[in-house]
Write a structure and sequence with these properties.
This protein is mainly α and about 130 residues long. It is built from five helices and no strands.
Length: about 130
């Protein structure tokens, strides 16, 4: 059975909605020590830049898909990137753990997409998030 572009777009929109809702669910409580703040900030900035670049690449790949599928995948790229940045900013000293969890969450989202170019575009972003923790 073949899924049409509308079906794919609806599925991606649903995933995007779930991602946005999940990104809003989290603790606003953050504790960091002053001594490790400078080190964590520079490491976080480096990771943030790498993921920003990956989000841009993901968005470009989505635009190349065109149509409603491309629009939905582009929105998913940006949503995953925004959720990651939010998680990273609240990670405190647990940056590596936040990166690992974000990469795993991203990969679960990819597995829910139909196989093909849409999945490939978002997979590259997940790989960039995962490698940012290395």
């Amino acid at each position: 059975m073949r899924s049409g572009p509308t079906r794919v777009a609806v599925g991606l929109a649903a995933l995007l909605s779930i991602g946005v809702i999940a990104a809003g669910c989290g603790s606003d409580v953050s504790t960091t020590s002053t001594a490790s703040s400078t080190t964590s900030t520079s490491a976080t900035d480096s990771v943030d830049q790498a993921v920003d670049s990956a989000v841009q690449s993901c968005s470009e790949a989505a635009q190349n898909l065109g149509g409603s599928t491309g629009t939905a995948v582009e929105a998913a790229c940006k949503s995953v990137g925004s959720a990651f940045q939010q998680d990273l900013s609240s990670a405190g000293d647990d940056v590596d753990q936040a990166i690992s969890e974000a990469a795993q969450s991203c990969k679960q989202t990819v597995n829910q997409l139909p196989a093909g170019e849409a999945q490939d575009a978002l997979s590259s972003l997940c790989d960039a998030i995962d490698s940012a923790g290395s």
